[in-house]
């Protein structure tokens, strides 16, 4: 039987998963491809390191030249980061090798050039594993949702932050404590910045937007806010108001262009994405023919990511080469200010000490400032701090800032996801001059 010669770059958690999967699915791959898939070289940083998988030491090398010189048909890149991965992928494509990569950062930063390069050399550049781990979302978007007009794609596409938020809610502990635990258990990186500040989700959203809309904002212009500043009390108040806070990535088609953001967002408790717990990912796609679709599954980790890598590898080997559509990058910066007011509903969380500790005075001050309050929940914390969670509409940031300074209050604002039903409800309420749902308690 003929052999497909694979060069593997990286033997970390995902690399080991790829080795295990190619071994365990050997028979199935051979039946499907009519060829044996064989890993002929593995690029590592250290030859002597202990691995999560038994490996023939003669396969290991620290030289990428040696990998390329091993008559490889396909390079599987699971090193991550821009360099040296970018150089290796570029050289592999130029040498006429197909490339399978899980590297979302590389694609968000250099995907435009790399897809062009793959087209020039008539080879596949496959990257299913770069977004949402084991969920085959990119293939579905690429193959089976081409006739629909997709109006939005949104989801929870970072497992680490979803795990942290879930643990905070479940065990009622603060961000720092959960992060430290997650690091100890290996769920979060020693340097968690890429995950907790939303960069990782931003890279993935960029890729999703390219597939869905054929364009995206430059990755570093996408509106981004992470979860590191969220307080436990903000999550708790949101829940009592009927919502969960999730790090939501959104790309939406609007009259003014593609609007993209990654930020903590309030989701109604019964929203399907609000049900995603722990390291699970969920991606919701809205198409004009099919309506709303939801894809869920494990978005990270050894075997889910290895599954996506090996499925991608097998799929590309069954397909003739076809050029990929060009990626376009378009700045939406100029339109952003204009777009912001369209967000009609926000979650405002306030903590106030003197002079305004009376919830009714606080409410009055908000109403006098022209801020429409839909729901309100207050609580005294340790007798001298008034904590207040509000669902508000129609505010200007300047007014809010002035008000917060007058009230000696600290505040944060988080958008509320507007579901179709809520938009209708808001319209009805505005007509009826709504009453405010109000609840208060004096705890501790
Ligand atoms: N750090 C990523 C996450 C890994 O937590 O989702 C998968 O891309």
Brief overview:
The protein has helices at 13-24, 26-33, 64-68, 85-94, 104-120, 137-144, 159-171, 175-184, 193-196, 199-213, 232-240, 302-318, 333-339, 359-368, 397-406, 420-432, and strands at residues 3-9, 36-43, 60-61, 74-77, 98-101, 125-126, 150-156, 215-216, 223-224, 243-254, 257-268, 280-287, 291-298, 328-329, 345-352, 372-381, 385-393, 409-415, 437-442. With 444 residues, the protein is α/β, with parallel strands linked by helices. The strands form four sheets. A six-stranded parallel beta sheet has the order 3-2-1-4-5-6, sandwiched between helices.
Number of strands: 19
Ligands, ions, cofactors = L-homoserine
Q: Mean pLDDT, rounded to whole units?
A: 90
Low-confidence stretches: 430-435
Give the CATH class of the largest domain.
Answer: Alpha Beta
What general outline do the C-alpha atoms trace?
Answer: elongated
The CATH topology label of the largest domain is Dihydrodipicolinate Reductase, domain 2
Number of helices: 16
| Rg, alpha carbons | 25 Å
Percent range of helical residues: 25-40%
| Quaternary state of the chains | single chain
CATH architecture of the largest domain: 2-Layer Sandwich
Structural class: alpha/beta
Number of domains: 3
Strand content: 25-35%
CATH superfamily heading of the largest domain: Dihydrodipicolinate Reductase, domain 2
Distance between the termini: 73 Å
Lay out the secondary structure.
Blueprint: E1 3-9, H1 13-24, H2 26-33, E2 36-43, E3 60-61, H3 64-68, E4 74-77, H4 85-94, E5 98-101, H5 104-120, E6 125-126, H6 137-144, E7 150-156, H7 159-171, H8 175-184, H9 193-196, H10 199-213, E8 215-216, E9 223-224, H11 232-240, E10 243-254, E11 257-268, E12 280-287, E13 291-298, H12 302-318, E14 328-329, H13 333-339, E15 345-352, H14 359-368, E16 372-381, E17 385-393, H15 397-406, E18 409-415, H16 420-432, E19 437-442
Parallel strand pairs: 1-2, 1-4, 2-3, 4-5, 5-6, 8-14, 9-11, 16-19
Antiparallel strand pairs: 7-10, 7-12, 10-11, 12-13, 15-17, 15-18, 16-17
Helix pairs in contact: 1-12, 4-5, 5-10, 7-8
Bound molecules: L-homoserine (HSE).
L-homoserine is lined by residues 133, 158-160, 195, 200, 299-300.
């Amino acid at each position: 039987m003929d052999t497909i010669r694979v060069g593997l770059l990286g033997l970390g958690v995902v690399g080991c998963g790829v080795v295990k999967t190619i071994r365990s699915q050997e028979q199935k791959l051979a039946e499907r491809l009519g060829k044996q898939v064989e890993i002929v070289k593995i690029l590592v940083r250290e030859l002597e390191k202990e691995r999560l998988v038994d490996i023939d030491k003669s396969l290991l090398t620290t030289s990428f030249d040696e990998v390329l010189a091993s008559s490889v048909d396909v390079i599987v890149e699971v090193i991550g980061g821009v360099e040296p991965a970018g150089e290796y992928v570029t050289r592999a494509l130029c040498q006429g090798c197909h490339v399978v990569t899980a590297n979302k950062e590389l694609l968000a930063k250099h995907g435009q050039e790399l897809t062009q390069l793959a087209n020039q050399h008539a080879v596949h550049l496959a990257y299913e594993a770069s977004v949402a781990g084991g969920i085959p979302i990119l293939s579905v978007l690429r193959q089976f949702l081409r006739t629909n007009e997709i109006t939005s794609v949104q989801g929870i596409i970072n497992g680490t932050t979803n795990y942290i938020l879930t643990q905070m809610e479940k065990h009622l502990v603060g961000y720092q404590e959960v992060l430290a635990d997650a690091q100890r258990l290996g769920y979060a990186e020693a340097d968690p910045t890429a995950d907790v500040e939303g960069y990782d989700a931003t890279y993935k959203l960029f890729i999703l937007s390219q597939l869905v809309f054929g364009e995206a904002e430059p990755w570093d212009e996408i509106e981004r806010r992470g979860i590191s500043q969220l307080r436990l009390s903000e999550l708790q108040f949101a829940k009592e108001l009927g919502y969960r806070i999730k790090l939501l990535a959104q790309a939406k088609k609007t009259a003014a262009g593609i609007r993209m953001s990654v930020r903590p967002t309030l989701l109604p408790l019964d929203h399907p994405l609000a049900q995603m717990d722990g390291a699970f990912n969920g991606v919701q796609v809205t198409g004009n023919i099919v309506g709303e679709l939801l894809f869920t599954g494990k978005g990270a980790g050894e075997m889910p990511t290895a599954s996506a890598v090996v499925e991608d590898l097998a799929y590309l080997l069954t397909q003739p080469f076809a050029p990929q559509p060009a990626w376009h990058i378009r700045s939406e910066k100029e339109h952003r200010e204009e777009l912001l007011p369209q967000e009609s509903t926000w979650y405002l969380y306030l903590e106030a000490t003197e002079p305004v500790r009376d919830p009714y005075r606080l409410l009055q001050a908000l109403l006098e400032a022209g801020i429409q309050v839909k729901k309100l929940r207050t609580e005294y914390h340790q007798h001298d701090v008034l904590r207040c969670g509000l669902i508000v509409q129609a505010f200007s940031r300047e007014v809010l800032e002035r008000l917060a300074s007058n009230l000696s209050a600290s505040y944060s604002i988080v958008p509320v996801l507007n579901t179709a039903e809520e938009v209708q409800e808001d319209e009805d309420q505005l007509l009826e001059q709504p009453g405010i749902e109000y609840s208060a308690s004096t705890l501790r």
